[in-house]
Design goal:
The structure holds 2 protein chains of 2 kinds. Chain A is mainly α. Chain A has 14 helices and no strands. In chain A, helix 3 runs antiparallel to helix 11, helix 8 runs antiparallel to helix 11 and helix 13 packs antiparallel against helix 14. Chain B contains 12 helices and no strands. Classes of the chains: A mainly alpha, B mainly alpha.
Amino acid sequence: MSSTSTLPRRGRRLPSYVPWLLITPSIILLVALIAFPLLFALKNSFYFWNLQMSPTPMGFIGWGNYEMALSGGLFAGALYNTLLITVVGTAIEFVLGLAIALLLVRQLPGMSVTRALLIMPTTIAPIVVGFLFRYMYDPGGGLIPWLLASLGIPLPAAGLLGSSTTALWAILFADVWQWTPFFAIVLYAGLLSIPSDIIEAARIDRTSPWAMLMRIKIPLIKKTVMIVIMLRFMQLFNTFDLVLVLTKGGPGASTRTLGYSLYQYGLVDFNIGLASAMTWLMVIVVNAIIALLVFFAFKELD
Amino acid sequence: MATQNGRLGTAALYASMLLLLFVFIGPIIWFVLLSIRPADMFFTMPPVLVFTPSWDSINYAFGDPGNNLPQLLNSFIVAAGAVLLNLPFSLPAAYALSRFRIKGRKHLMMWYLGLLMAPPVAFLIPYAILASAAGIKGSYLSMILILQTLTIPFSIWLLRSFIDEVPVEIEEAARVDGASTATILMRIVLPLILPGLIVTSMFAFVFSWNNAAFPLVLSNRATATLPIGTLRYFGTAGVTWGFIAAAAVAAMIPPMLIFLALDRYVVRGLTFGSVKG
């Protein structure tokens, strides 16, 4: 780990170990906290181990856990649910957030208060958002079923969270409520940074509002757009808290996301071997996605 | 810009603003009202907005018997502990990453960012088994330690963006005058980056405060944080919504206040310093 380091401009040279002396402690602690457990999980993924039966692994079974996860459809089902809410959720939140940002940019009196209040859903812990929506979804007098019924929209008898056709969308709706403001506020900041003379010039050229948005505004805030979409995509991919509170992965396995599956197999069923195999499958998928995102979207960051 | 809207346009804009507030703030108010509703009105439909408040739920949660009061304290201990422990690691690293041209700096920053996007449950389960073996499961320390996987990368990213804005010339001048690196750090750099350090710490506090996956698995009855205590109300016979709301609203308040206080930095905090608000 040697490097030549200088203070930018005019600074006298410092020994090259100085910056590493400052950085290394953080790397060591993080590697200890993450790599060590993951290696432990890698070993466990090749063993049969039920924590309720034994405090130590109970026998080497090679690829058995992986076969169970992959051929049993456990992994594929959870991956499908996860990708569905991640892709759809990120898209909805981005579009709605952009629409709100375009409204906020109009700078009317009272807008700054609206903006400060609007971010409130995003500040709340996702698990608390789970509590809030479980109350609002309650089939026995929750606000949302009442609203929908008032509008004449038919509801599943088991409630929105109790029916496998609606439960995943109910989770997604809670997430959209919490995170749309995040997109709105960040994209608003991006839109504000566009020099007004560019907008003025386009207006003089009679550019249509749609062309203005697609050809001028969005390209100018491309970096911000990339960042928020990427961050949100990954957070949604790891969704856990909302599922825990709203459905526990049910009904059946209809809302089992990858994050929740790991918890279910590892800490509800205590099948550490299977949970560890699922963990590694998820780590591989997450790393592949991050690599793609960094490769395509994040080159110009930093 | 507002001048071009015309009277009708302005009215439409204000109408959409009110609609926005209704959609995004309404549910929060609805939940706050639940914590002061009389028990027989939890599920009264059509919605009743005006009623004589009952303090029973809040009293039960935080007064007598006040089961949620120690959990509120636990949330503070864990979040504050996570912030305090992360500073000696992230502050020097952020400084070095801002001030020195290090080989592989970009990759290192990406590595930190990757950790922020890692699935927490993935390393949480093996960590829990290892913490059990080490005899620290259930302790504040086990939660504070694993929270570093979030607080350190987050603080390094956000702090670096603040340090980048402090002109380096001041440090260089002091170095030319023969000041030692330690003196420069303590006497010059630290006071200059203190505002950024405070903002970063407050966001890291919210981040830790709002984390539920770690305490869900690692805490025990005595160290459970507020959301975990709230979750227990679902296990009891008949869900006690008033108590849930009282405890959950208490968990909402600190992050909301911190975000309102840091309004100027919210965009930066939420994007880890990569978008300047």
